[in-house]
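FORM 7B: Structural annotation worksheet

SECTION A. Query
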Amino acid sequence: MIEHDVAAIDVRPDVLDDYVRKVDTEHETMIWTHPGMSTYYRNSSGRVFSAMPWRFVDYWRMTHDPDLGQYRLTKA
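SECTION B. Predicted structure
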């Protein structure tokens, strides 16, 4: 933020929606979405939630060098 003279960063709604779709799609491949599975990862509506369905090293790669075009930037 200092390097780009940015005071605030907000993710664009379309980027957030795309991320949520990717998270949901990834969760569909995991055991806790199996119909017979009972887990605290599933909310009362049946949607699986967690901070992320990926390994930490994969998440680090995804977030290490952000694409600032995916955000609304407020200049300082």
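SECTION C. Observations
The CA atoms of residues 18 and 24 lie 10 Å apart. The chain has a mean pLDDT of 89.

SECTION D. Sign-off
Analyst initials: ____
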